[in-house]
Design a protein that fits this description.
10 helices, rod-shaped, Arc Repressor Mutant, subunit A
Length: about 210
């Protein structure tokens, strides 16, 4: 049991208050949550009461931080979890924020993956898969998104022609081209096909 002896607004964050129990600093709370739970001078709370209020406050603050985080560009669930974890929030708070953001449709990993797929112009399916998995998109979602995706032959050919411009059509340079296309995530059988086309179309250059 403890008596609230002072509640004062924080100087840097006006939406939060500092709470003092028995003349000693206890915690910082969201002002709205503090008011809602009757945290005011003279009120008495058990330790467990304060823990519950602090968690409720953290959920609101973490949700606001997460919304600010995704304001400039969409993020995956993993992005948000990692961000909040680095901010020091407990898993119970993070899970609550994720549930709330899904409820508001602020998080949609399927939509994120589809949008990402539309945005890449010079990347093969292997690298796209790697990047989506790295961002925390579930494997079954990635597989579904990519099931009908086909590396653009025209994109590969354009990259290859730009790479080989002013270069000798030698085995060494073709090997370098192969590594360049592989680094962009294109599959080896398609890389071989592109190189074969270049060699056949430019037989007089090597």
């Amino acid at each position: 049991m403890g008596i609230v002896t002072k509640v004062e607004a924080q100087k840097r964050h006006k939406e939060r208050v500092n709470v003092y129990i028995d003349d000693e600093f206890c915690c910082g709370l969201n002002a709205e949550i503090a008011t809602k739970n009757g945290v005011k001078k003279g009120a008495d709370f058990t330790h467990n009461d304060l823990i519950v209020i602090m968690v409720e406050s953290d959920k609101m603050t973490a949700l606001q931080k997460a919304c600010d985080y995704i304001a400039k560009m969409p993020k995956t669930e993993k992005n948000i979890r990692d961000y909040l974890a680095k901010k020091g929030y407990e898993e119970i708070v993070i899970n609550s924020v994720i549930d709330k953001m899904k409820e508001y449709n602020y998080i949609d990993d399927v939509a994120y993956a589809k949008e990402y797929l539309q945005s890449v112009k010079d990347m093969g399916v292997n690298k796209i898969r790697y990047n989506l998995l790295k961002r925390g998109i579930k494997k079954n979602v990635v597989d579904t998104i990519l099931c009908d995706y086909d590396d653009s032959r025209d994109v590969m050919l354009d990259i290859a022609k730009k790479f080989m411009k002013d270069k000798e059509y030698s085995m060494e340079n073709f090997a370098k081209l192969s590594r360049r296309l592989a680094s962009k995530g294109f599959e080896y059988d398609k890389i071989s096909s592109i190189i074969r086309v270049l060699r056949e179309d430019n037989a007089d250059r090597y």
